[in-house]
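Q: Okay, next protein. This is Initiation factor 2B from Halococcus dombrowskii. I've checked the sequence twice, so it should be correct. Can you predict the 3D structure?
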Amino acid sequence: MDEPRVACFLRDRGKILLIRDGDGIDPDIDRWSSLINNADDDPDEAAHAAIRERTVDDAISLVRAGKPFTVEMDQETRWRIHPYLFDCDSRTVETNDETTEFEWTSPAEIHRRETIPNLWKSYDRVAPTIETIREDGDHGSAWLSVRALEVLRDRAGVLATTDGDEADGWDDLAALARDLRMTRPSMTAIENRVNRAMAEVNARTPAAIEESARQGIQRALDADSRAASEAAARLSGTVLTLSRSGTVLEALREATVERVIVAESRPAREGVGVAETLASDDGFRVTLAVDAAAAHVLAEHAVDSVLVGADTILPDGSVMNKVGTRAVAIAAAREEVPVHAVAAGDKIATDGDARFELGDPEAVYDGDADIEVLNPTFDRTPADVITVVTEDGALSETMIGEYAEQLVGLAAWDD
């Protein structure tokens, strides 16, 4: 009979947790693995139990569960593996008497170490892919751009460790990079950050691309954090926001803010999750508002500023973001409330084309009447009612245009 097990991968800032349990003597026992736990009854509960045993449980969130598979551990033992991936914001790990060491590292290290059987297969079933990036309706472009770099890094790492360091891996990875750039055309950060990783390689080899993508992940995360700090310095009192942006959340947590009003952001209502997240933090008074009330709230409540994210910043200073941003910004201008869009500079587009996405019509109406549904995912907010704040501070229209010109050069790797 197959013995059910969960294999839980924790991810923080692009790295995963590998842990080694054993006696420090027998190499057949001392092998690297993820967090493993028995799963006799409910795999989901077993996964969370494994997390609670070794980590700060309230610092993690489930990303996805992968398709289970069976692996032969030895001649007498078969495991039915249920893979899971969790994001976390703490690297605190509780060890026990069997733990010899642990490390936060790149997933490609699985290929370079003695691991339990099929550990890479477990990771591969929950790792980010072109499909998960394309279909993700919950996360912003900063988060998804890091996932795109992880896809590139992981694939390069596999080639570097299984096929050597030959330059003929370049064509495969270049094709992957082109595909990644097109996963979400409206999210410029994905294109710019993939371009940067490919443009800054020091050799056309898988190992060089793996290292460039790894550095790109850290650069992207650092830029997002610095942008959040720049925005936080401009916030106080009551702030209105909408949709979901990790950079916005980071800025709000860093700022001296008394109250946050969150528009629910229909039809996906991702603002509800943002409100719940903020409500779980100490020191926040959180109000959830229906989208249609945003202009009324700005007129009748003492709102000090509006803070939103940005999926793309166009060279003229206008901002592409979750639909509803334009209406909020124009209403805020009427009430003389400043509006800031916080984003890393990599979200600046190299051309002025506004790329809109349409959401699923059934998210708005799934009835039988002959009704045409308009469900745009993004809208465009003009530059005169919004201020762009990046890791370099508030940018003028001229500065945004100059930044766009610099980013054009990153695409030259594909010429």
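A: Here is a summary of the prediction. The CA atoms of residues 260 and 286 lie 5 Å apart. DSSP finds twelve helices and 18 strands in the chain.
Q: Noted. On to the next one.
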